[in-house]
Amino acid sequence: YVEATWGWDDAAQLARFKASFEPSLRQIIELGDQPIGMLHVDVAGSPVRLLNIQLLPAFQRQGHGTALIGALLRQAKERPVWVQVLKANPAKSLYQRLGFRVIGHTETHWQMLRDPPA
After folding, report:
1. What percent of the chain has pLDDT over 70?
2. What is the distance between the alpha carbons of residues 55 and 71, in angstroms, rounded to a whole number?
Protein backbone atom coordinates (compact mmCIF):
# COMPACT_ATOMS: atom_id res chain seq x y z
CA TYR A 1 0.00 0.00 0.00
CA VAL A 2 3.01 2.24 0.49
CA GLU A 3 4.01 1.63 -3.10
CA ALA A 4 0.47 2.33 -4.33
CA THR A 5 0.40 5.58 -2.34
CA TRP A 6 3.86 7.08 -2.89
CA GLY A 7 5.82 4.61 -4.98
CA TRP A 8 8.67 2.64 -3.43
CA ASP A 9 12.05 4.11 -2.55
CA ASP A 10 14.33 1.77 -0.59
CA ALA A 11 16.48 4.57 0.83
CA ALA A 12 13.50 6.67 1.92
CA GLN A 13 11.78 3.69 3.53
CA LEU A 14 14.94 2.69 5.40
CA ALA A 15 15.45 6.26 6.64
CA ARG A 16 11.82 6.48 7.77
CA PHE A 17 12.09 3.14 9.57
CA LYS A 18 15.33 4.10 11.33
CA ALA A 19 13.90 7.47 12.42
CA SER A 20 10.84 5.92 14.05
CA PHE A 21 12.21 2.62 15.34
CA GLU A 22 11.41 2.14 19.01
CA PRO A 23 11.78 -1.56 19.89
CA SER A 24 9.92 -1.30 23.19
CA LEU A 25 6.69 -0.44 21.35
CA ARG A 26 6.91 -3.31 18.84
CA GLN A 27 6.00 -6.95 19.20
CA ILE A 28 6.59 -9.87 16.88
CA ILE A 29 3.32 -11.72 16.26
CA GLU A 30 3.74 -15.47 16.36
CA LEU A 31 1.42 -18.33 15.53
CA GLY A 32 2.83 -21.32 17.35
CA ASP A 33 6.57 -20.84 16.88
CA GLN A 34 6.24 -19.11 13.51
CA PRO A 35 6.58 -15.33 13.23
CA ILE A 36 3.68 -14.06 11.13
CA GLY A 37 3.81 -10.29 11.60
CA MET A 38 4.49 -7.24 13.70
CA LEU A 39 2.44 -5.03 16.02
CA HIS A 40 3.46 -1.47 16.94
CA VAL A 41 1.33 0.06 19.70
CA ASP A 42 1.74 2.95 22.13
CA VAL A 43 -0.43 2.20 25.17
CA ALA A 44 1.07 4.92 27.38
CA GLY A 45 -1.49 7.64 26.74
CA SER A 46 -5.04 8.27 25.75
CA PRO A 47 -5.96 7.50 23.13
CA VAL A 48 -4.04 4.25 22.79
CA ARG A 49 -2.29 4.49 19.42
CA LEU A 50 -2.22 1.53 17.07
CA LEU A 51 0.73 2.71 15.00
CA ASN A 52 1.26 -0.30 12.75
CA ILE A 53 0.02 -3.83 12.31
CA GLN A 54 1.47 -6.05 9.63
CA LEU A 55 0.75 -9.68 8.86
CA LEU A 56 2.51 -11.77 6.26
CA PRO A 57 0.24 -12.17 3.21
CA ALA A 58 -0.29 -15.90 3.89
CA PHE A 59 -1.87 -15.00 7.25
CA GLN A 60 -4.08 -12.11 6.15
CA ARG A 61 -7.88 -12.40 5.92
CA GLN A 62 -7.96 -15.32 8.37
CA GLY A 63 -9.09 -13.48 11.50
CA HIS A 64 -5.63 -12.89 12.98
CA GLY A 65 -5.84 -9.11 12.58
CA THR A 66 -9.33 -9.07 14.07
CA ALA A 67 -8.10 -11.09 17.06
CA LEU A 68 -5.08 -8.84 17.61
CA ILE A 69 -7.10 -5.63 17.42
CA GLY A 70 -9.78 -7.15 19.67
CA ALA A 71 -7.12 -7.94 22.28
CA LEU A 72 -5.82 -4.37 22.02
CA LEU A 73 -9.34 -2.98 22.49
CA ARG A 74 -9.78 -5.11 25.62
CA GLN A 75 -6.40 -3.95 26.93
CA ALA A 76 -7.34 -0.30 26.32
CA LYS A 77 -10.43 -0.71 28.59
CA GLU A 78 -11.92 2.76 29.12
CA ARG A 79 -9.54 4.55 26.74
CA PRO A 80 -10.24 5.30 23.09
CA VAL A 81 -8.03 3.68 20.43
CA TRP A 82 -6.67 5.63 17.47
CA VAL A 83 -5.35 4.31 14.17
CA GLN A 84 -4.26 5.86 10.90
CA VAL A 85 -4.68 3.74 7.76
CA LEU A 86 -3.53 4.42 4.22
CA LYS A 87 -6.44 5.23 1.94
CA ALA A 88 -5.18 2.53 -0.45
CA ASN A 89 -5.42 -0.11 2.30
CA PRO A 90 -8.66 -2.14 2.42
CA ALA A 91 -8.12 -2.64 6.19
CA LYS A 92 -10.28 0.46 6.71
CA SER A 93 -13.32 -1.81 6.47
CA LEU A 94 -11.87 -4.08 9.19
CA TYR A 95 -11.50 -1.12 11.53
CA GLN A 96 -15.04 0.03 10.75
CA ARG A 97 -16.39 -3.46 11.53
CA LEU A 98 -14.59 -3.23 14.89
CA GLY A 99 -16.28 0.07 15.75
CA PHE A 100 -13.74 2.62 14.54
CA ARG A 101 -15.04 5.76 12.86
CA VAL A 102 -13.27 8.23 10.61
CA ILE A 103 -12.40 11.40 12.54
CA GLY A 104 -10.13 13.01 9.96
CA HIS A 105 -8.00 12.45 6.91
CA THR A 106 -4.98 13.61 5.00
CA GLU A 107 -4.26 13.27 1.33
CA THR A 108 -3.01 9.73 1.97
CA HIS A 109 -4.52 8.48 5.26
CA TRP A 110 -7.76 8.00 7.15
CA GLN A 111 -7.55 8.80 10.88
CA MET A 112 -9.93 6.64 12.84
CA LEU A 113 -10.98 6.38 16.47
CA ARG A 114 -12.80 3.76 18.48
CA ASP A 115 -14.47 5.19 21.52
CA PRO A 116 -14.38 3.14 24.72
CA PRO A 117 -17.44 1.02 25.50
CA ALA A 118 -20.26 2.91 27.20
Report:
1. 86
2. 16
